[in-house]
Amino acid sequence: MRFRWILWVLCFFCIPVFSGAQTNISGVVNSYYQVVEVIPVKACIRVSNITGLLPNKRVLLVQMKGASFLTTNSTAFGDTTSTNEAGFYEAGTICAINGDSVFLFHNLLHSYTPSIGKVQLVAFAEYTSANVTDTLKATAWNNGTGTGGVIALFADLDITLNAPIYADAAGFNGGSVVVSNTTCFNAPLAATNYAYAGANTAPQNGAYKGDGIADIAASQNGGRGPLINGGGGGNNHNNSGGGGANLSAGGAGGGNSSTAGCTTTLKGLGGKPLKNWGGEKIFLGGGGGAGHNNNGVQLKGGGNGGGIVFIWANSITGNNYVISANGGAGGNSQSDGAGGGGAGGTIILAVNTYNGGVTVEANGGKGGDSDDGGNIGRCFGGGGGGSGGAVYFTGALPPVTVTTNGGAAGIETGRDPGCAAIQAATAGTTGAIITNYTFSRSTANAGYCALLLPSKLIAFNCLPYQDQVLLKWEILNPELVAYFTVEKSENGTDWQRLFDLTAVNNQEAYSSMDRTAIAGKTYYRLRITEKSGYIYYSPVRQLLISSAEQGFSIWPNPASRLLRLSRNTIGSAIVKIADGNGKLVYHTTVVGRLTELTLPVLAPGIYFIQVNGSVQKLLIR
């Protein structure tokens, strides 16, 4: 973190340290890992494949499914009895990897049940500074592997949008459309149940439901009852699907208002709203239900829900591009039932500063339109709209454009005037915008991680040396080691790589310098990578660097208007002060070792003072 502050400050004072430092990104930048077991006592996550995972990498652990729900043949079908662990998530950092086991530096906050809940580990895409040059996407949710649907970005400094960040329709799947035979019945033999086997097309009495936070038996995956937050499918004959849900409800599909043939209104019901447990749980948008179809003219079912976007950065420059997790639109129909729209997904923005026109969207998908084609006495309503999603800001509501609108209801066209009263679809409800949010992240050190650390390291120390830090260590069996990586942190949690140093056979003692040190508390650790690929860490060392070692000292700190400056030299020096956004707020030239500076009136906060080539943090109260 202190290394990051130096980079910010040098940039603010126009020293060209960022030339070529920004990384261009586009497409899919995340990797997804199926979790097979979670062992909380060891902060251990077993995954199906460790390719691409490394110690010190940030990860997002999230349980996608696992809720319990009612399956009664009534409007209560799909009511949640318990979400169980579904929706629990947390950000963490990898301590070590052994076989298929990933160990975290911190204890887990929550319990997870991979055996029933489809838990995934998502590796953050990490950058110092990132430039989105073409659409950045999520891999779509895959219910078979239990992975995908998530974008997770981390940038030490900033993310610049020159293209959108797009997780639209990357969430839970909409109900698939299949073509039923033409068999149908009016009362009392009409298909009035809330669940049927969606694969049965002779006839299909209930179109496929949209996917939600639980899996369901094949014998019940069709029909008008919602799958918790997944919209219900339209029943036989030609009723439309309901919209998916997130933290608010999806809209109901339109119904059959025919006066000829099969005439029973059995519309797909909208997905049911979820609870976020005070922000501890996050969800993909629920899929829309499919419409009942027996003509096969239009073959798109319910819209997919929106995905999850987690952005963790100091600042975002939007350039009027969008960050979105919108639900997908339901499929249109031709003299059949239409599909329901998918619900908006979830967006978490852990960002300090927003610049240049940022737009954030987690809107529900529109329900599909239904064209009756003027058929005599045969009329069918459109699909239900998906609900809006959820957007979380870690601070107050920033100066951005943010929407979580519910999806519009599908419309019915080409109606025969001889049909009965229209059975219209309904729109999805508006989602949630939540401010001053704290995302889930453990800070309690995992004891088992410490057991995995030094096995051959004899000593590791750091000492102040003039305006630098001397790092020294000794290692047994250096011939087993490939290289060392020195890392440092401001808070002992967020770590930055300083440099790598190749190990030398028969050389046990090593030393190097940190030339980026500034005054204050700094943490250091050593990562040892053996030739076998095994990685472990040294104990963390804390060093308090005094201002005198930086060539100048200031007091009081925090200050208000009067600031005293003491220097080690008597010649002239240029003094500059910048605020946290890089704006220069004070500039003067001083001569001599001791100077009193009268500052302008400054807003309380963190500033940076530079005296010639040295920089320190200054607090204004």
Brief synopsis:
This protein is mostly beta strands and 621 residues long. The protein has helices spanning 2-12, 114-117, 447-451; strands spanning 23-28, 31-39, 44-47, 58-63, 68-69, 80-82, 89-98, 101-104, 119-123, 125-137, 150-161, 165-166, 308-317, 322-324, 333-334, 346-355, 359-361, 370-371, 390-393, 401-403, 412-413, 432-434, 457-465, 468-475, 481-489, 495-502, 509-514, 520-530, 535-537, 541-545, 552-555, 562-567, 572-579, 584-591, 594-598, 605-611, 614-620. A hairpin with a 6-residue loop joins strand 31 (552-555) and strand 32 (562-567).
Task: Write up this protein.
Among the domains are: about 455-545, Immunoglobulin-like (Sandwich), CATH 2.60.40; about 545-620, Immunoglobulin-like. Helix content is about 5%, strand content about 35%. The strands form 8 sheets. Strands 1, 10, 11, 12, 13, 14, 16, 17, 19, 20 and 22 form an 11-stranded parallel β-sheet that branches. A 6-stranded antiparallel β-barrel has the order 2-3-8-7-4-9. Strands 25, 26, 28, 29 and 30 form a 5-stranded antiparallel β-sheet that branches. The protein is elongated, with a radius of gyration of 29 Å. Mean pLDDT is about 90; it is low at about 1-20. It contains 3 helices and 37 strands. The longest helix is centred in the first third of the chain and has 11 residues, at about 1-10. By secondary structure, the chain is mainly beta.
Instruction: Return the CATH architecture of the domain at 453-545.
Output: Sandwich
What is the CATH fold-level name of the domain at 453-545? Immunoglobulin-like
Kindly report the name of the CATH homologous superfamily of the domain at 453-545: Immunoglobulins
Overall SS class: mainly beta
Poorly predicted runs: 1-20
Largest beta-sheet characterization:
11 strands, parallel
Count all strands and give the number: 37
Provide the gyration radius in Å. 29 Å
